[in-house]
Amino acid sequence: MTSQWEAALEALRNGECVAVLDGEEREGETDLFFPAASLSPASLRLLRTQAGGEMYMSVGHEVASAFGLPYIGNVLALTEVSAKFPVFQYMEKSKGEMCQGSCSVGVSLDHRTTKTGAPDVERSYTCRRLAELFQEVKEMETSVDASQRRFGEEFHTPGHIFLCVENGKGLSVRTGHTELSIALANAAGVTPVMVGCVMLSNDGDDFGALRPAPARAWAASRNIPFLTGSEIVKHVLG
Amino acid sequence: MTSQWEAALEALRNGECVAVLDGEEREGETDLFFPAASLSPASLRLLRTQAGGEMYMSVGHEVASAFGLPYIGNVLALTEVSAKFPVFQYMEKSKGEMCQGSCSVGVSLDHRTTKTGAPDVERSYTCRRLAELFQEVKEMETSVDASQRRFGEEFHTPGHIFLCVENGKGLSVRTGHTELSIALANAAGVTPVMVGCVMLSNDGDDFGALRPAPARAWAASRNIPFLTGSEIVKHVLG
After folding, report:
1. Using a CB-CB distance cutoff of 8 angstroms, which residues of chain B are in contact with residue A52?
2. Assigned domain for B172 exists
3. Can you say how many angstroms the Cα of residue B70 is from the centroid of all Cα atoms in its chain?
4. DSSP for A8-62?
5. In chain B, whose CA is at the least distance from the CA of A156?
């Protein structure tokens, strides 16, 4: 019998969906993920209709490094920014276990060829191209400056895709959905760019995240592999 | 017979939804809007299940001014930002009619009391509190610095609510959904903070924005007022 771990890696290699619960003691949220490299408009429609939360793209640390993509928090903390826009002196991200001293949020972007950037066909193209461009510059072994230029030729900011950037030490430092999804991509051998969306409740007066039991049942009913953060950590870190 | 314009203003005063098509020659997208001041978790669920696109909060120019909230493009264009993070030298927003030389996108935020910030109950609270806080500082006629401090005591960045900021000259300069929704709020006499979401197609192989005819039919079937950008401009500017 195939384990959920093996089923998840196989699903990602086939461009299919996996479900990841970070942990009931952490966020307690289940996010669905597709690999960006083969993302279809239909996959994006599934994320927004079946999961429903904010859509984001997690990128591996090596992807952010290749293109020089920062955490937005490090941009807003610059002296000139807080001097010119003092509100940022007061808006520093709250510390807590969800951020663990830093935060994964990067910039937003759209591919320059999109019209508004919002529809499934446009957002899925933006995601696919970012994954493809990373493979292209990786194979060319080009300089970071040349990679940044190519990045800017294709993408502008702000846009409709919000990046979450893996920290440089992966799961050993942070076990958020960003790190968990990139660890899965690396284990599956697919490009470390993943498109995720948190599952929300559509049930009556429960307006929170979808609870772990119904999330697990939903995934089982669709043959979508379901993993918890601790299962992923155990497989990756041993 | 009540006109769509009067029905829209009445809906907003009651905390209900309106639909706005910017124009078939512009984006050709229909966005649903609720007034933020009375936003419920159920309203937010309706936006994400019935509209489906990126959710955002449009704020009037006076709201952004009261709290010193900038366009993110003006932050990323600062010398220190582009010197430290050169990728921004290359990622300048494409010029085009959707941006008309500038862009409406501001910062993202969550209320500090939220856990992850993502679920409907948390996002709706973030939106309501921003609208309430604007009314509070407006009535107190406090200084911009004091307002910014109070803003930072309640909200941190980055977060799950993405702001779109009305330009200072409203509909006379730009007729995007940001300006259209704020013009409606002002006409209805509600706090100029609106929560919007673009309607996307869920129909077969059409992965674009929901077309104007089915958007109009959907609104009619639910008794939701439907206005076009040119109708709003005509009512507001005469």
Report:
1. 48-49
2. yes
3. 15
4. HHHHHHTT--EEEE--TTTT--EEEEEEGGG--HHHHHHIIIIIEEEEEEEE-HH
5. B91
* Percent of chain B with pLDDT strictly greater than 70: 97
A179-185 mean pLDDT: 98
pLDDT band at B27 (very low <50, low <70, confident <90, very high): confident
- Residue A99 belongs to a domain: no
In whole angstroms, give the CA distance from residue A19 to residue A30.
6
Residues of chain B neighbouring A80 (CB-CB closer than 8 A): 78-81
Q: How many domains does chain B have?
A: 1
pLDDT score recorded for residue B34: 98
pLDDT at A181 over 70: yes
**B48-102 pLDDT, tens digit each:** 999 999 999 999 999 999 999 999 999 999 999 999 999 999 999 887 656 655 6
DSSP character at residue B38:
G
- Whole-number pLDDT of residue B146: 96
Strand order in the sheet with B30-35: B105-111, B155-165, B52-59, B193-199, B30-35, B18-21, B226-228
From A5's Cα to the closest Cα of chain B, the distance in A is: 26
pLDDT of amino acid A98: 65
Domain span at B206: 4-88+98-237
Asked, for residue A4, whether it belongs to a domain, the answer is no
- Cβ separation B209–A119 shorter than 8 A: yes
Q: What integer pLDDT is reported at residue A194 of this predicted model?
A: 98
